[in-house]
Design a protein that fits this description.
By secondary structure, this protein is mainly beta. It has four helices and 27 strands.
């Protein structure tokens, strides 16, 4: 879904463009466009993308899920799979017009991948699509209870989802590889989430290990990597000597993996990064100073930038709203401007041309698909006071 490698001088770039407190909203960020950002050929802005007609729905939530080349982005609007060219929204023609649907990935050549759930059913159908096609091309394995997908620039699509025992990699619509869960995780282990596939075909996913306990089932989440060269799957090391619950959200072209580590009470997410050769439990760039928890949820292909969300526990809503964050690849996690003061935002995708994307709530309380253009130039270290 998103990827990352080392960054070059990101901290120096940021230092000359934001104050210590930074721009808290998009309008404040826009007022700084005529500084060094414009001279460098980059105009920072938080762009709101158009929505399909109709009322907002809770799920799939309004927002961008992945970024393509140029002005292309994909995601969901009003519970339907859509793609955007610039701010203009286009609905994907799935076979059932009443179906819930969503696009989750797009590659450099414009190949998109997503799912739809036929009306009245509980299963999802994976598909690929290109702009202008009359309809989607369904993946050959038929409906599944849950499906998560990604696509790389060679056109390979990875598909799996909650409860699955295997993950499939498709090439030209045919299963090229079937990825199995490492035996050491036990016979009851299952796929929890699919993190993505990178340019060389490496796949990452989160796998649930089920362990017996006298009081019932005990489950832990493990990050797993399947190398693109067909080598054996690897369980990534975890912090605290194991026993953590770890999620993976994306993998870079060089194999750098981003996600989250959890240890302790529920919701206690910490941003986490694993780097090759995966000999250690990885490291964390830390959380945003204003929020107790955070996750990394997207990574650029080659420029060393990751994005995610700084969070509060749901029962701590009075403390403040979640906020989209950006990590330049070194240094601390930084905040991205909100669409409106005090309103929630999240970032899940980031591109090599310095766009970040996700969702943000406006002053009227409506969720909108958004893109932060020249995102590293908008990111700032918030004042915790």
């Amino acid at each position: 879904m998103r990827k990352m490698t080392a960054t070059i001088g990101a901290a120096a770039v940021l230092a000359g463009l934001v104050t210590a407190a930074g721009p808290s909203t998009a309008s404040e960020a826009a007022r700084g466009e005529a500084t060094g950002s414009e001279a460098a050929g980059c105009r920072p802005a938080l762009s709101v993308l158009r929505a399909l007609p109709g009322a907002e729905v809770a799920w799939p939530k309004e927002g961008v899920r992945a970024l393509g080349r140029g002005a292309v982005s994909v995601g969901s609007s009003r519970g339907k799979a859509v793609y955007w060219i610039g701010p203009t929204v286009h609905r994907v023609p799935v076979p059932d017009s009443r179906a819930e649907s969503e696009l989750l990935g797009v590659n450099a050549s414009g190949l998109m991948t997503g799912w739809y759930r036929p009306y009245g059913t509980t299963t999802q159908v994976g598909f690929t699509y290109r702009a202008g096609d009359a309809t989607v091309t369904e993946l050959p394995d038929g409906p599944r209870w849950s499906v998560e997908l990604d696509v790389n620039d060679s056109g390979r699509v990875v598909a799996g989802g909650y409860g699955h025992r295997t993950i499939q990699v498709y090439a030209d619509g045919v299963v090229e590889r079937t990825l199995t869960i490492p035996e050491e995780l036990g016979p009851e282990a299952y796929v929890y989430t699919v993190g993505g596939i990178n340019a060389r075909g490496d796949v990452v996913a989160t796998v649930q290990k089920v362990e017996p306990d006298t009081g019932g089932r005990v489950e832990f989440s493990y990050p797993v990597l399947w190398p693109g060269d067909g080598g054996p799957a690897r369980i990534l090391p975890q912090a605290a000597g194991g026993g953590d619950t770890s999620w993976v959200a994306g993998i870079a072209a060089d194999g750098t993996i981003v996600g989250s580590d959890w240890y302790g009470p529920g919701y206690a997410w910490t941003p986490w990064v694993w780097t090759t050769p995966y000999g250690t439990a990885g490291t964390s760039p830390g959380r945003l100073s204003t929020h107790p928890y955070a996750s990394l949820d997207g990574v650029s292909p080659t420029t060393g930038v990751a994005v995610g969300t700084a969070r509060f526990h749901p029962e701590e809503a009075a403390s403040g709203a979640d906020q989209a964050v950006l990590w330049p690849g070194s240094g601390p996690v930084l905040a991205l401007p909100r669409l409106a003061d005090g309103m929630a935002s999240e970032a899940v995708a980031v591109s090599d041309d310095d766009r970040a994307a996700g969702s943000a709530v406006n002053a009227s309380g409506q969720a909108r698909a958004v893109i932060w253009k020249c995102a590293t130039r908008q990111a700032y270290a918030p004042n915790p006071s």
